[in-house]
Amino acid sequence: MLAATQFQPTDARRAFPCLDEPALKANFTVSLAREEHMATLSNMEIEATEPRRSGRLGVDHYHTTVKMSTYLVAFVVSDFEFLSDLAGETNFSVWARPEAMDQADYSLSVGVDCLTYFESYFNIPYPLPKQDMVALPDFAAGAMENWGETPSPLTPSSFSPPSPLPGRPPTNALSPSLSPSPTSRETPCCTSPLFLSFPPRGDPTKHPSPHFSPSPPSGDAN
Fold it and tell me: How many domains does the chain have?
């Protein structure tokens, strides 16, 4: 069972009263009711759960969000399972249908690497206490940048790296055409972790990202 939101561009007004305009930002305090065997997700972590109807229902009350636009608010109610790991101080989780959980490990590993790398590169800590990636079996938008709860289609979010052929070394899961060269100034075509390549972990000044490295100057600077 699954219910998920996609409010971009102007559908938040269909879920709750609001001034549904990206420039008019606000803090949101979300409460979601669910059956006892279900789980809910939203942008922030759950602050408390209130039982209802002799425990057959639960109401999950979430911490108030940071200030943001209405279209970034997100809800999920599902019977999904999850895997979790820490990305620095951030609790990072991948949620998927039970039958797809055997494909979630790779997405979790790459997602944690993405988040920790960009925190180091930009020297800006991730502003939320958690980040959920949700693999939805049918998501027409393709992907969405909701803070703290990022939905995407099942295919890119749940993926197992291909096993190497006999006699051949392991290869990057990316197609060579999607892996920019060290001198490329182009940014990746997609911000999903599966479409990003990164230098080794460590000091980003020693391993600059190929996506942000300027080309060497040509000719006389004067």
Answer: 1
Tens-digit pLDDT profile for residues 146-205: 999 998 876 545 556 655 555 544 444 433 333 333 333 333 333 344 334 444 444 444
Q: Evaluate whether residue 179 is within a structural domain.
A: no
DSSP letters for the chain: -EEE---TTTTGGGTS-----TTS-B----EEEEETT-EEEESS-EEEEEEETTTTEEEEEEPPPPSB-GGG--EEEE--EEEEEEETTEEEEEEE-GGGGGGHHHHHHHHHHHHHHHHHHHT---SSSEEEEEEES--TT-----TTEEEEEHHHHS--PPPPPTTS----SS-GGGS--TT--PPPS--SGGG-----SS-TTTS--TTTPPPPP-S---
pTM as predicted: 0.70
